[in-house]
Structures are given as structure tokens and as C-alpha cells.
Predict the structure.
Amino acid sequence: MSVIRTDSNRFRGPGLAVAALFVFAAPVWGQSASIGADVVSRYVWRGVDFGESMAVQPALTFAAGGLEFGAWGSYSISASGASANENDLWATYTVTASSGLSVAVGITDYYFPSPDADAGFGDGEAHTVEMSLGFTGPETFPISLFGGLLTESSVLYAEVGVPFEVSGVGVGLHMGFVGGESDFYGTEGAALVNVGITASKDLAITETFAVPVSVAYILNPDQERAHLVFGFSLAP
């Protein structure tokens, strides 16, 4: 995905996200850690197809209390989709009330290591930073709300989701909006970009090992495109 940046006051380099990640991480390093990877038939993010290819998406996560931080990536298995490769650093802090309501504040440094890009990791041209705020309701009202603001362009993405279960299959509905013109999302103004349904279930391999699998139908009304995505997750 090509992201055009024109704001002269844009974020310069990965320093903000990296600094936030390790400043918060230092006192609690090693509390817990997890690794894993998803394999998806298409990498569709907020209604936008990145790479038009299958992708492998590794993740490394550390956690301590309400703080989580780590790295996440997506790498196309096709050379033609390599321009959409992604390697992010992120951190979130979540507070959960006794009722089950939770609030999460986060920062993500989206880094696109395109093989054809002139900008390296230390150059802000290869990075986009987002500040985010999310709410997840208790079991009695399990709605989720998410808002993400790109710091360089002040473009807001907002999403609402509702989970439920059908015959032992977890199902989630979601709807996402972009607040204005954005090269990042490919919108010319405020637009509905991400409407979909995801069904997921664990596939039992042995009595003690199961692989989570999912299928998602995603519609981007603004781009007039629809995607049907299959994925599975692997974790020790």
C-alpha cells in the first residue's frame, strides 16, 4: 500500500512510539511473554486490502498487569505484495472495572518496510503513528467501541463491534468509519469503509491442542469492494 504524506508537521521517525514502548516496559520487563502467528488468505485491515496476497503475520507480546506491548508484522507470500509488508511496534494500557467494563489507551507505530522505498527505518517517511482509545462492555452489554487518530493527518477512524455466539461458533459484527479525506485509507472525505462479520472456532487437532480458525466477510462501501478472508492462528 502506498501512503502519501503531505503534512509538513508530520511525525518524523519512529522515536515517539519506540520511546513510549520501552520507557513503560523497562520496570516490568519479563513479567509474561507470548509468541504466535496468523496465516491469512488476504490481509484486509479496516476494509483495505494490503498486498492482494496471502500473508503470514507474526506477533511478539509482553504483558504486566494492564500494560501490554510488543511487535506485530504482516508479510506477503507473494513478491508482488511486498510493498504492503508491515512491521509495527505498539503499546496499550487497559483498566478494567469490577463490572467487566474495560478502557484501553494505546499507541501504534505503523512501519512499512517496502523493498522499493527510499526511506529506511529511521526515516519518518516509512512510519505512521496512531493514538487510540477503546471501550469494551461487560458480559451483560458486550459492545466494543474503538477510535484511532493518525497523528500526522488528524484523521479519525471509529469502529463499533458486537460479539455473540451461534451454535458454538463465535460471531462478531463490526462497522468502521473514516472521518475525512485520507491517503492512508484511500478516502476523499468522510466514509464508511469497513462493514463485516467474522465467525471463529477452535479446530481440535488433538485432545490437548486446537487451532483457532476464522472466516470473515468484509465490505468496503467506499471502495466498492468485498472480501472473504480465511485465517488460522498458531501459538505454543
